[in-house]
Amino acid sequence: MTTVSIDADIKAKWHQGQCSYSPGSPEELAIIGIDLLVKELGTEAARAFVSQVFEKYKPTELSKLT
Q1: Is the pTM of this model over 0.90?
Q2: One-character DSSP codes across 1-66
Q3: Which residue, 19, 23, 50, 58, could crosslink 29 as a Cys pair with Cβ 3.0–4.6 Å?
Q4: Under 8 Å CB-to-CB from 53, ≥6 apart: which residues?
Q5: CA–CA distance, 5 with 27 (Å, rounded to integer)
Q6: Is 41 left (phi over 0), alpha (psi -120 to 50) or beta?
Q7: Are strands 10-14 and 17-21 parallel, antiparallel or unpaired?
């Protein structure tokens, strides 16, 4: 398995507010991305979007990533 570290400062703004994030791992970045997708699209549309993204990975390709 590959270890990936992230050094990023993310500033997100929307009509009701704003926030800043500093993810340090792919897992933290994914949580931030999913949170922002839910804010933008709503829970069901965000879930459908994420499912659509994972459709392009075959099970054998997913096992190669670990």
Answers
A1: no
A2: ---------EEEEETTEEEEE---SHHHHHHHHHHHHHHHH-HHHHHHHHHHHHHTS-HHHHHHT-
A3: 23
A4: none
A5: 10
A6: alpha
A7: antiparallel
CA atoms within 13 Å, Cβ hemisphere of 49: 13
pLDDT tens string 16-52: 899 999 999 999 999 999 999 999 999 999 999 999 9
CA distances from 32 to 22, 41, 60, 64, 65 (A): 9, 14, 27, 24, 21
